[in-house]
Amino acid sequence: MLPPYFLFKEMTDTHYIGRFAPSPSGELHFGSLIAALGSYLQARARQGRWLVRIEDIDPPREVPGAAETILRQLEHYGLHWDGDVLWQSQRHDAYREALAWLHEQGLSYYCTCTRARIQSIGGIYDGHCRVLHHGPDNAAVRIRQQHPVTQFTDQLRGIIHADEKLAREDFIIHRRDGLFAYNLAVVVDDHFQGVSEIVRGADLIEPTVRQISLYQLFGWKVPDYIHLPLALNPQGAKLSKQNHAPALPKSDPRPVLIAALQFLGQQAEAHWQDF
């Protein structure tokens, strides 16, 4: 739980842009609501804009109809976004352009290494294909790390140090199966949308240094980051679609919103007249 009033102190910032970017792999649950509400309140407290982006770049993981359901859930819980929803499935040309630029600058390369090979050497890629000059056939594209980012400042948690080996790894930006990698798409789209601060769950701390390294390679301004605590189930695991977290209730949203506000350390009192 957050300390009371750590976030959401009202101030004017006409350039503030926040966002919520769910993947359509299922309906929103209480953990999703924490991330959505936290980013929404931060944007409104800064008198900024709050955007919604549907990260539908991984069709095998998508649940039919989930994207539309997510948007209806946000509206039902009073989280109304600014502007149009951005769909990553409509942004492939932008990702291809980013990949082409990185290739032209010598900042990426093709890799044919299998997961089995990488697991056999400990799970961290060793740069095996850096100098082998593979072509694009049956190959992934990896970033050629120049100046790895090993730490960053989280506006809530302070300085966060990344695992050195993971931070220095040449990570994948375009998958062997032809799909664009999350780290590339999220950076390209956050820059495109002018996002100034990313408020999301603590489960996304680990890829942050990789995303910052991409910002730096592109020469783009790095946004601020806030990683919120995760809501856990009774077994101590984070609430997630993979762990079959129950979807948000379709009934009166106020009790759930009050619980979410309290989780975020905000004073939220319910009175009998509210129900």
From TrEMBL:
<keyword id="KW-0479">Metal-binding</keyword>
<protein>
    <submittedName>
        <fullName>tRNA glutamyl-Q(34) synthetase GluQRS</fullName>
        <ecNumber>6.1.1.-</ecNumber>
    </submittedName>
</protein>
<dbReference type="InterPro" id="IPR014729">
    <property type="entry name" value="Rossmann-like_a/b/a_fold"/>
</dbReference>
<keyword id="KW-0648">Protein biosynthesis</keyword>
<dbReference type="GO" id="GO:0005829">
    <property type="term" value="C:cytosol"/>
</dbReference>
<dbReference type="InterPro" id="IPR049940">
    <property type="entry name" value="GluQ/Sye"/>
</dbReference>
<dbReference type="GO" id="GO:0006400">
    <property type="term" value="P:tRNA modification"/>
</dbReference>
<dbReference type="Pfam" id="PF00749">
    <property type="entry name" value="tRNA-synt_1c"/>
</dbReference>
<dbReference type="GO" id="GO:0004818">
    <property type="term" value="F:glutamate-tRNA ligase activity"/>
</dbReference>
<comment type="similarity">
    <text>Belongs to the class-I aminoacyl-tRNA synthetase family.</text>
</comment>
<dbReference type="InterPro" id="IPR022380">
    <property type="entry name" value="Glu-Q_tRNA(Asp)_Synthase"/>
</dbReference>
<dbReference type="InterPro" id="IPR020058">
    <property type="entry name" value="Glu/Gln-tRNA-synth_Ib_cat-dom"/>
</dbReference>
<dbReference type="InterPro" id="IPR000924">
    <property type="entry name" value="Glu/Gln-tRNA-synth"/>
</dbReference>
<dbReference type="GO" id="GO:0008270">
    <property type="term" value="F:zinc ion binding"/>
</dbReference>
<dbReference type="GO" id="GO:0006424">
    <property type="term" value="P:glutamyl-tRNA aminoacylation"/>
</dbReference>
<keyword id="KW-0436">Ligase</keyword>
<keyword id="KW-0862">Zinc</keyword>
<keyword id="KW-0030">Aminoacyl-tRNA synthetase</keyword>
<keyword id="KW-0067">ATP-binding</keyword>
<keyword id="KW-0547">Nucleotide-binding</keyword>
<dbReference type="GO" id="GO:0005524">
    <property type="term" value="F:ATP binding"/>
</dbReference>
<feature type="domain" description="Glutamyl/glutaminyl-tRNA synthetase class Ib catalytic">
    <location>
        <begin position="19"/>
        <end position="246"/>
    </location>
</feature>
